């Protein structure tokens, strides 16, 4: 465990079933607001209540809704350029990870001094220029809590995380009504993404007392609520727990970091455009089984926290095996694809996948067990 560690998180967090109503007090100093969202969210009417609150306050606003799912850096730059034309002093992101990531980039790229491409090479160049508020509509990516923005890099068939503490949101609103009618496939994929954040951060080489506090609470909330939250639209308590769990897991990322699950999933999104949560779900069990010799004591601790009616007298090996089987069971119950055949990924692409995955050293260094190219090959083969 690290001996020196730190925590960065949003300055103001409002949570609860009616948290969205706090928006009125948050925007009092704004003169022009840009709402980032996507066309799907816009069509659901989820933007209507925030929009009504802004209109009631008499504040000028514009909506940018043509944000693509999991954008590459060219697409992200186009959104930033669109934002610049508005001369706004407040950003509200209403959506999932892609929407929030583009909004975060816009909050530090309001001038022409740097571009998204420049931040791929030096992410710390830019400084916060625009006040930002994140309202997640999935539970989820945890993007509302992190200093990360993930963009595709087409020339590398890879997704890369731009990490800059200046991108951390000024405000976050967690309101379960915003995820009430989320379609099950999206709820499941994003929910397992949050589950990965929690278990990876807890078993990371950079785990520490601060990150563990958030990661363990996130793991408890997510594992004990994800099935109900994803399968029952009326389960607002479970959905509230998932929103909190997702947020806590995002906070854990800022202090610890994800590991080989995320590292090896990035090429699957970058080249084949497999949804991020789905690619993580595919790799979760294979990576945890690979890591088990190095993390079984930690998985046993997680068992004691998460399994409410579990036998605390079980051996460490038994607790560890139970946790991995439970992760596998969650993915199966939620009917998330676990084979790359579903996405027509040919086995002859294996060498390229391994090469691209091994480039994600930012996350691979967090893995408690070293991942060699041969190890990565074997893990990918498990999901081929």
TrEMBL record:
The keyword Chaperone belongs to this UniProt entry's keyword annotation: no
UniProt keyword terms in alphabetical order: Oxidoreductase
Taxonomy, superkingdom: Bacteria
Keyword Oxidoreductase in annotation: yes
Residue span, Fe-containing alcohol dehydrogenase-like C-terminal domain: 188-382
InterPro entries: ADH_Fe/GldA, ADH_Fe_C, ADH_Fe_CS, Alcohol_dehydrogenase_Fe
Segments forming domain Alcohol dehydrogenase iron-type/glycerol dehydrogenase GldA: 10-175
Pfam family, one: Fe-ADH
Gene3D superfamilies: 3.40.50.1970, Dehydroquinate synthase-like - alpha domain
PANTHER family listed in its UniProt record: ALCOHOL DEHYDROGENASE, HYDROXYACID-OXOACID TRANSHYDROGENASE, MITOCHONDRIAL
Protein's name according to its UniProt entry: Iron-containing alcohol dehydrogenase
Organism: Candidatus Enterococcus moelleringii
């Amino acid at each position: 465990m690290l001996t020196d560690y730190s925590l960065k998180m949003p300055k103001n967090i409002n949570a609860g079933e009616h948290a969205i109503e706090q928006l009125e007090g948050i925007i009092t100093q704004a003169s022009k607001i840009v709402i980032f969202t996507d066309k799907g969210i816009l069509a659901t009417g989820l933007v209507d209540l925030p929009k009504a609150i802004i209109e009631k306050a008499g504040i000028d606003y514009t909506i940018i809704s043509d944000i693509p799912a999991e954008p590459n850096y060219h697409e992200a730059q186009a959104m930033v350029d669109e934002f610049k034309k508005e001369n706004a002093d407040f950003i509200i992101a209403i959506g999932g990870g892609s929407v929030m990531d583009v909004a975060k980039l816009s909050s530090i790229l309001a001038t022409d001094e740097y571009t998204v491409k420049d931040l791929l090479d030096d992410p710390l160049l830019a400084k916060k220029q625009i006040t930002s508020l994140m309202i997640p509509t999935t539970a989820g990516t945890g993007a509302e809590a992190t200093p990360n923005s993930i963009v595709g890099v087409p020339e590398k068939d890879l997704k890369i995380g731009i990490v800059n503490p200046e991108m951390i949101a000024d405000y976050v609103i967690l309101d379960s009504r915003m995820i009430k009618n989320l379609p099950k496939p999206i709820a499941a994929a994003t929910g397992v993404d949050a589950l990965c954040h929690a278990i990876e951060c807890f078993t990371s080489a950079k785990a520490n007392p601060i990150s563990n506090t958030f990661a363990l609470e996130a793991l408890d909330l997510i594992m004990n609520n994800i099935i109900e939250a994803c399968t029952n639209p009326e389960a607002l308590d479970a959905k509230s727990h998932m929103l909190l769990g997702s947020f806590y897991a995002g906070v854990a990322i800022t202090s610890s970091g994800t590991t080989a699950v995320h590292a090896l999933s990035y090429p699957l999104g970058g080249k084949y455009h497999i949804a991020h949560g789905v690619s993580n779900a595919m790799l979760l069990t294979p990576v945890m089984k690979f890591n088990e010799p190095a993390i079984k004591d930690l998985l046993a601790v997680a068992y004691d926290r998460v399994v409410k009616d579990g036998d605390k007298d079980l051996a460490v090996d038994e607790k560890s095996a139970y946790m991995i089987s439970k992760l596998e069971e969650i993915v199966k119950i939620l009917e998330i694809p676990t084979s790359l055949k579903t996405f027509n990924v040919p086995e002859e692409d294996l060498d390229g996948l391994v090469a691209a995955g091994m480039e994600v050293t930012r996350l691979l260094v967090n893995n408690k067990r070293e991942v060699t190219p041969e190890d990565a090959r074997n893990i990918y083969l498990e999901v081929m």
